[in-house]
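Intended use. Records like the one below are meant for learning the mapping from a protein sequence to its folded structure. Do not use them to infer anything beyond what is encoded.
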Amino acid sequence: MNLKLSITLIGIIFLKKVIAKALSSERKLIKTYNQMKKKKLE
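Structure written out for the chain above:
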């Protein structure tokens, strides 16, 4: 029971880290995309 619980917790922490990384990289992509659009409009 305890082992299952700890494995679940580790999995949740791992998923949170992966999701956080994905979100931050997505924000960077959106930022660069918006900058490119602004440069094209100028």
